[in-house]
Amino acid sequence: MATKTETVWNNIIDILNTAKTKISGSLTYVKYISQGIRDDLESYPLIVVEPNREDETQITVPHNKRIVFSVLIRCVMMVNNRTNQIVGSNPDNSKGILDFVSDVKNVLNANRTLNGNALKIEFPTTFYIFETYPYRIADITMNIEIISQDTNR
């Protein structure tokens, strides 16, 4: 099951976009998904996906290597209602930052092999940034373990 980090990247973007555009998808409230930081993002909530790190952990067989590819998933939302900025409200179906993070993780967890390209995925850390009210930001680190051929750089 040798793959490339580019294939894994495209699978992550496709999975998030499907959940955003699917009628019953859990991310239909997301306005925009960006591959990389942009300075012109104005529609919230949004997701920015950035490659973070790539660690070659071991050689598995000749010409194959085990890689942990780390991706940063930044969730950004603007919440003017102070009481709903952390946890949303059921009556008006608003989302807080904890709901947003949970939705993103659940969407990706539903496809734990990223369409057969990953050995495993995990979310070791999530950092919350709160200094920029009314914007709430969460940085989710997602680690994806894959097998890649040495010649697939």
Kindly describe this structure.
The chain has 153 residues and is an alpha+beta fold. The protein has a single domain (5-149), classed as STM4215-like (2-Layer Sandwich). It contains two helices and five strands, in the order H-E-E-E-H-E-E. It has helices spanning 5-21, 97-109, and strands at 32-35, 46-59, 64-78, 120-129, 135-149. A five-stranded mixed sheet has the order 1-2-3-5-4. Strand 2 (46-59) and strand 3 form a beta hairpin. The chain is elongated and about 55 Å long. It starts with a helix and ends with a strand. The mean pLDDT is 88.
Could you name the key traits of this structure?
single chain; alpha+beta; elongated
